[in-house]
Amino acid sequence: MSAQPDRTSADAAPRRAPRRVATVDLAGRVVRLAGEVVSTKRVPAGHGVSYGAEHVTSAATTLALVALGYADGVPRTASGAPVTVDGVAHPIAGRVAMDQVVLDVGDAAVTPGAEAVLWGAGGTPVGAWGDAARVPAALLEAFVGPRVQAVVEDVVADADAMEALGRRLAVILGAGDVVVLTGELGAGKTTLTRGIGEGLGAVGTVASPTFVIARTHRTATVPLLHVDAYRLGNEAELDDLDLDVDASITIAEWGLPLVHAVDAWLHVEIVRTIGGDDVDEPRTVRLTGHGDRWPASRLLAFARGAA
Amino acid sequence: MRHVDGAAIAANVAGVSARTDALVCGVVKADGYGHGAIVAARAMLEGGATWLGVVDVVEALALRAAGIDAPVLAWLHAAEPDLAAAAAAGVDVGVSSAAQLDRAALVGATVHLKVDTGLGRNGVPMGEWASVVERAAALQAAGSLRVRGVFSHLAGAGAAFDAAQLAAFVDACAIAEVLEPELRHLSNSSATLALPGAAHDMVRLGIAAYGIHPDGDDAAGSAAAAAGLRPAMRVTGAVVDGVLDVGARHGLLPAPGAPVLVGDRVVPVDAVGSTSTTLAEPVSGSAVLWGDPADGEPSAIAWALAADTIGYEVVTRMAAA
Q: Which residue has the higher pLDDT, A1 or A273?
């Protein structure tokens, strides 16, 4: 297993809060919890670490601070459980605090900003982590707190499953929501949109909008606005279309250039797991929420909702 | 279901304020220890807190977005911190290294310099304190930033450890005198109640404001009551044939044996599941998981003891997930 690299430019930009990311599968399980080393410092031997000074450094060492605590999903019973940084598992030194844990990394060259993985890819398997943390692994997912960013990621087996995922998404979408779909040609963006349309009871066939730029479908409730941004040059052109985003559910294929014109959006990335154009090959889908409308709780509720 | 009594938070803060000359910083990090940050912040201010404390700038900006314009301090930042938004919103930032100091200077932030007096988390190590203070003085003289405060945090590792940390803090403040800081602050809830001599200019009140005594074994609530503290959180549910409609996803820690009040009977927890909890007897009725022991209800600390933890974690897990 390898650590998942940061995939969006936002991850490299300065942050207003420490990085805290839970990866959730389409069955609602938190398959990975990771943060970042926010700071490191050298301390001498005999230095206490965290509340109660239950851990005392045995030699001059580097202490690495990771901004994930029991408010975020690290149970307080997880003192001693492993946190993996640069491929090396370090036990949580001393008590787990509300907002942070400390790692006593010795002379390891740990750099602030390094990813710190509790469980999942690049870290400890969830079952073993739960054992070390003295919490049933099945309950770990319930521990993730509201400061943690949720990323829904899973493999979708074929086109039918992609359409079913769209129907599932339709359940949580409402007026004003903007869904940005990215993925190469033939990745399944229109298939997913067709599923969303079915879920909403859209009137008319949802097809690739490549030649129309935008098409509005009436539904049982909120209109579905299906946009192809592939040929849109900039947000001014979007404004020119005079689309009623606030009163619609907007699905924008190739929509990343549009996000500067909206306050919040759900980004759905579709990546072919295997090469080739066959629509029935498995795809990896990754959903991230951006802006106030998409707190972690909304993505978790989606992932935990019935398939 | 979580019920939060803002009046209890306000009264707890007012009670503690009355017993100290120091200013009170109400700590509302982690969604106000699970009580709701905005409700808690308003109640703390009503009770006489003049400052609010949070962990990160996102939490601080959420207070601002709710129209709360009281002074706010945020002290735990990303490795590559964006402090510009904090400076623009009038949020003070805790600074724990020379690198963070330089970041703060770039955006003209107002900072509280943090010294590590023994906790081993963030804070400038004592060995680097003098040089960081010197750097801060130069930046302050150049008008690049303002140092409003100097602070540290106690490890709660016993009286001797407290005394050593307090002495180290006094030394650090002497070195930082050149910065003319207006606020020196060290005390958490525990020290505010037990070590009045540590208060300096401001105390940071977290768990006590929520009506839970910092001592971990106060299941009966007698220590809290003696300190004039009333629990602000009450968690209720419905039980049908021994199955309670609250589970881990609602915030419950697994706590076999924890007491649940069903009607007028106390029934122990058998097992906490994902979305429900099984009690040891097939009772039915309305249930109180924890609330105010003075009213005959179980305490959050009773749940904590059954879960092998402390009251802080029990209430914090009830944050709006």
A: A273
